Amino acid sequence: MRRVLLAGNKSEGACSRSYYAMHDAAHAALFITGYETSDAIIKTHHMLIAEFGKRLVLGGQIDANLGRALNRVQDIRLLADYDATPPSLTDAAWCVEKAEIFVAAIRTMVVAQQTLG
Fold this sequence. Notes:
The structure is a single chain. This protein is an all-alpha fold. It has a single domain (2-116), classed as Up-down Bundle (Four Helix Bundle (Hemerythrin (Met), subunit A)). It is built from five helices and no strands. It is globular.
């Protein structure tokens, strides 16, 4: 969907969907590693990004570049969703690319965790 929105010059939607793909992947990563449980669900975007950085990036399980990308895509998503000026197509393409890399890295981590567990 992110690529479809980008191809249709819908930068707001492409940025928003990119962030939410990363958001869901970050939740999955925290859950599979035991930092988020059904009893202790992280409820805000800020808390999710902070816990992801603290637990997985600083913990050495996720590359710091992915943590920075999550932060930057969130910033662009906020502009896309709430600012009158849409993000550029260049920014949207960057968000889509980073979301694909991020989700793939989390998928690899989750598969590895499941294999160990």
